[in-house]
Design brief:
It is a single chain. This protein has 22 helices and no strands. By secondary structure, the chain is mostly helical. The N terminus is likely disordered. The protein binds phenylalanine. The site of phenylalanine (PHE) has 16 residues, from helix 2, helix 3, helix 6, helix 11 and helix 15.
């Protein structure tokens, strides 16, 4: 039995940890964390961020990984195994990542293009890839998006052990080496470096506003890939050999370390080569940072800038591709197991769908066709990002804590010490100290904090006095529609049907292999 399980999942604990870290480390670490840190008070923000990871992120991370591990199945079956009427959550959290994959792959495509362009643009203005003309071209970004998605598809087709685990084991150490090397280089650029460090990390508690605290919470969730079924899916491919407590510690530390290093790679170089940018700090985050500011800085580095540019963008491609495979895998796993489809077909179906949707996303966010492709007043990327991250992700994360804290632990109790016993009986084995904290947190504190994030996130976008707009109601409406659809589809089509498990997937694999052998 143990043998069977192994074949269908991660071969080793470290393989799982690297794959989960691969999902966690992404664009959020590189263009989200450093910028927010600088904006909201440097080390003061880092402190709050770490607290958020410790007390909210890691709790939800345990909940999600364990939900998958105990079910040994896709997200729908996993939630169904907690409580039959709760399976729709599994469907919702399996659909959310597909939306994210549609825009994430566009950004991945841009990055790929920039990596390829490294040796042409630097030092020669005529060859320079100008951001505006590249992204607003109707063809190029689409082509690169498809290439990027194809890369992800190839990895996913290899399966958990032969594809995702193998790729993560090779790519994550490479990513780490590149980012450490660039950070060291950046820190040794000479005069101006301290100015960058000061801008990034010197604690400024006066800048740590309420918005900053909310930003830290949201960043922790997004960065750990929570609330979207991903960690449930990856967790399901683990077995007894994995210690959840140790795994989540390593995933969280790695994710935070890369985020911190990203800032150390960026800001000292800005300080040394483009200190004027500190006067317009808003340019130092997001799309502007990666595709406009960084190329300019690489150019100012002289010849070596070409190499730094190549490695930096290649590093972001790695970060993005290991995130996209996790986004797509969640859907692929469900399609395989529910429809008894071979992995290759399921991958092609989900990736194909993402590619189709990503075309208008690329046009919309790049401003092709005179920027006319918009929904509800937003470009499609912003719309999808808000819908998933602001509205739906907290709901997914809340449900995972609720499932563990209240539904699995349904025997008694308002008594958290009993919760720990109940969870232990269920199979969740945590270190007693962490377990005690976990039980209280997962039941009471974390769900409340998540609700808080949801409410504040939504309020600041709809209440005019807080800077909100009327348009955001459409985004909320769309998210609600998606949730309602998940509920309807689940109760009509899935609730009394077999929604499949990892064991079914194994059977399909075996059958596929046998057919291939017969053909040969
Ligand atoms: N965690 C990734 C990042 O930091 C983004 C992501 C979110 C990936 C959700 C998968 C799922 O960029």
């Amino acid at each position: 039995m143990a043998e069977t399980k192994k074949k269908n999942g991660f071969a080793s604990g470290i393989g799982f940890i690297l794959a989960a870290a691969g999902s966690a480390v992404g664009l959020g670490n590189i263009w989200g964390f450093p910028y927010k840190t600088a904006k909201y008070g440097g080390a003061a923000f880092v402190l709050v961020y770490v607290l958020c990871v410790l007390f909210i992120g890691s709790i939800a991370l345990v909940a999600e990984i364990y939900l998958g591990k105990r079910a040994q199945a896709n997200t729908v079956t996993a939630y169904k195994k907690v409580k039959k009427g709760f399976g729709w959550v599994g469907l919702l959290v399996c659909v959310i990542p597909v939306f994210i994959a549609c825009y994430y792959s566009v950004l991945g495509g841009w990055t790929f293009r920039y990596a390829m362009n490294s040796f042409q643009s630097v030092g020669s203005a005529s060859n320079a890839l100008t951001f505006g003309s590249f992204v607003s071209n109707p063809y190029e970004p689409v082509i690169y998006t498809v290439i990027f998605m194809a890369l992800a598809a190839l990895i996913i087709m290899g399966g958990i052990k032969g594809g995702i685990e193998k790729a993560s084991k090779v790519l994550m150490p490479i990513l780490f080496i590149i980012i450490v090397a660039i950070a060291i280089y950046s820190l040794t650029l000479g005069p101006g470096v301290e100015k960058g460090l000061e801008f990034y990390l010197v604690p400024k508690f006066e800048n740590l506003t309420f918005d900053g605290v909310i930003a830290a919470m949201g960043q922790a969730f997004y960065s750990l890939s929570l609330g979207m079924g991903i960690m449930v899916a990856y967790g399901s491919y683990t077995g007894k050999e994995i210690k959840i407590g140790k795994s989540i510690a390593m995933i969280s530390v790695f994710d935070t370390l890369i985020a911190l290093l990203a800032g150390l790679a960026i800001f000292p170089a800005v300080g040394a080569l483009a200190p004027e940018l500190f006067d317009t700090p808003d340019a130092l985050g997001g799309v502007g940072l990666v595709y406009k500011v960084l190329p300019m800085i690489f150019e100012r580095m002289g010849d070596i800038g070409q190499f730094i540019s190549f490695f930096f963008f290649a590093m972001i491609v790695i970060a993005a591709v290991t995130s996209v495979i996790s986004l797509v895998e969640t859907g692929v796993q469900f399609v395989i197991q529910k429809f008894k489809a071979p992995r290759k077909i399921a991958t092609l179906a989900v990736c194909g769908l993402c590619c189709l949707v990503s075309i208008p996303v690329a046009w919309s966010v790049g401003g092709a066709f005179d920027g006319s492709i918009m929904v509800f007043g937003y470009d499609i990327l912003t719309f999808m990002d808000d819908m998933t991250n602001v509205v739906l992700m907290p709901i997914g994360a809340f449900c995972s804590c609720f499932a563990i804290g209240w539904l699995i632990d349904d025997k008694v109790t308002a008594n958290p010490f009993k919760t720990l016993d109940n969870l232990k009986n269920d199979g969740l084995d945590l270190h007693p100290l962490f377990g005690g904290i976990f039980a209280v947190m997962v039941k009471y504190v974390t769900p409340l904090l998540i609700l808080f994030i949801e409410i504040v996130g939504v309020l600041t976008r709809v209440v005019p006095a807080l800077g909100g707009t009327i348009n955001f109601w459409f985004t909320i409406g769309f998210a609600v529609l998606l949730a309602v659809l998940s509920i309807i589809v689940y109760f009509v089509a899935f609730v009394n049907q077999d929604t499949g498990t990892n064991e079914d997937e194994l059977a399909i694999n075996v059958k596929e292999k046998a057919e291939i052998e017969v053909e040969a």
